[in-house]
Amino acid sequence: MGQSSSTANSVNQENLVSGVSLDPELEEAIVRDFSNQSLQEEWDKFRREVIIRRNERLEKRNAALLEAQQRQQANHAAMQERLTALHERRDQLLATFADESVSIRYDIQRLEETYLGVAEQTPPVDYCLGERAHWIDCSKKYGTDMRPCSDYLAALERCVNRTITESI
């Protein structure tokens, strides 16, 4: 190895500034290692940037999620207030309806007592009761021939005319 490096040394001396020469395989290994180290550094730099961007996205997403949750809670609180107000209004309307229905029932009962109660308390008047009874008995007795009942029918007619005239 000593001879080969001295021979290579004399050949490469023209191209080298320094007097040290390296074996071509060693030189390739160093270049590969440097290249690999360079690539590794670039790759690590790229991974760090990707991780940083990912963390930034996660932070933004978490901030947006937190903001959305806060808006949702605020909306929920507002809807609860509105729902409570609607329930109170419904209860007021139901109470008013119940009060009005009791009032209307009372008014109906009072009107019935005033107008219908008087008619119920007074005994019914049987106008022309005798004349009607005589005519009905006669018409039952002579079912098909009504000529014998004509006097009873005339008496009933006079009674009805008299009753109508008196009520007017």
Short descriptors:
168 residues; rod-shaped; MICOS complex subunit MIC19; coiled coil
Structural class: mainly alpha
**Rg over alpha carbons:** 61 Å
Number of DSSP helical runs: 4
Percent in helix:
over 70%
The backbone outline, from C-alpha atoms, is rod-shaped
Strand residues, percent: under 5%
Kindly report how far apart the N and C termini lie.
Answer: 156 Å
SSE sequence, one letter per element:
HHHH
SS elements, strand count: 0
- Mean pLDDT across the residues is 81
Poorly predicted ranges: 1-16
Q: For the report, how would you describe the main beta sheet?
A: none
Summarize the structure.
The protein is mainly α and 168 residues long. Helices cover 83% and strands 0% of the residues.
Question: Your description of this structure?
Answer:
By secondary structure, this protein is mostly helical. Helices cover 83% and strands 0% of the residues. It has four helices and no strands. The longest helix has 98 residues, at 24-121.
